TrEMBL record:
<protein>
    <submittedName>
        <fullName>Acetyltransferase</fullName>
    </submittedName>
</protein>
<feature type="domain" description="N-acetyltransferase">
    <location>
        <begin position="6"/>
        <end position="164"/>
    </location>
</feature>
<keyword id="KW-0808">Transferase</keyword>
<dbReference type="Pfam" id="PF13527">
    <property type="entry name" value="Acetyltransf_9"/>
</dbReference>
<dbReference type="GO" id="GO:0016747">
    <property type="term" value="F:acyltransferase activity, transferring groups other than amino-acyl groups"/>
</dbReference>
<dbReference type="InterPro" id="IPR016181">
    <property type="entry name" value="Acyl_CoA_acyltransferase"/>
</dbReference>
<dbReference type="InterPro" id="IPR000182">
    <property type="entry name" value="GNAT_dom"/>
</dbReference>
C-alpha cells in the first residue's frame, strides 16, 4: 500500500513535548520494563552534538506520528586519526502507525538528507533484520568495532552503513556511543513523573 498524506520536516522546540510523549509510547515495555528512550530524546535537545537539520518529525494529517534524530559521532581509527560520522536513534513511530511502512519512509528520507549534508558513515545499535533492508551491515564486517564489547567478538546489533561507499576501505577502528546516550535511572524516573502513569511489565524478548 502506497503511503500518502505525510510530511517530514525538522522539528521545532514547540514539538519537543509531543516528540517525547511519542517516543515513550513507542518504546514502553519493548526493550525493558518501562522505557528510557524518551529521556534520551530529552537529553539531546539543545546539545551541540544534535544535528538540527536531521532532527526530523513525520506528520500524518497534521499529527506527529514519527521521529528520528541524528547526532554527531566519531570512529577512533587504529591509525590514530578520528573519523567524524553520525549516529541516530531512537527511531520512533507511534504504536497505532507501526508495521505500516512509516519507519522505513522516515529512515530512508533521513539518510538521503544526511548524504546531501555530506555525511559519509552512520553507526548505530539496532536490529539487523530491520536495518539490513536499508544497507546496514554488522560493523565488524568493515573492521569497525563497538567499544562496549570485546573487539574479537562479533556484535550483531552494532551496525554500519556507508552513505558514501568505500569511505571505510583500508580503515579499522572503534566506535563508542556519544555520551548523551547514557542515562541515569533516577533521572529517568524523575523525568517520567511528568507523563501519564503506565505500568512497567517484564515481557519475553526484552533485553534488560
Amino acid at each position: 500500500m502506497a503511503l500518502s498524506n505525510y510530511q517530514i520536516k525538522p522539528i521545532q522546540p514547540a514539538d519537543y513535548p509531543a516528540i517525547e510523549y511519542l517516543t515513550r509510547e513507542a518504546f514502553w515495555n519493548v526493550y525493558q520494563p518501562g522505557a528510557t528512550e524518551h529521556y534520551i530524546v530529552h537529553q539531546f535537545q539543545g546539545r551541540p552534538e544534535l544535528i538540527a537539520d536531521l532532527n526530523l518529525g513525520l506528520w500524518v494529517n497534521d499529527q506527529i506520528i514519527g521521529h528520528i534524530m541524528y547526532v554527531k559521532a566519531q570512529i577512533n581509527l587504529d591509525a590514530g586519526q578520528v573519523l567524524p560520522i553520525v549516529t541516530f536513534g531512537p527511531l520512533s513511530i507511534a504504536p497505532k502507525y507501526q508495521h505500516q511502512g512509516y519507519g522505513g519512509i522516515l529512515l530512508q528520507n533521513s539518510m538521503k538528507r544526511a548524504t546531501n549534508l555530506g555525511y559519509a558513515v552512520i553507526a548505530i545499535t539496532g536490529n539487523l533484520d530491520f536495518y539490513g533492508r536499508f544497507g546496514f551491515v554488522v560493523g565488524s564486517q568493515l573492521d569497525i568495532h563497538y567499544a562496549a564489547e570485546p573487539r574479537e567478538q562479533v556484535v550483531p546489533y552494532f551496525l554500519i552503513h556507508e552513505l558514501i561507499p568505500g569511505t571505510l576501505n583500508g580503515r579499522s577502528g572503534t566506535y563508542e556511543d556519544p555520551v548523551g546516550y547514557t542515562v541515569d535511572s533516577k533521572a529517568v524516573a524523575e523525568f517520567d513523573r511528568q507523563f501519564p502513569p503506565k505500568q512497567k511489565l517484564r515481557l519475553p524478548g526484552q533485553l534488560q
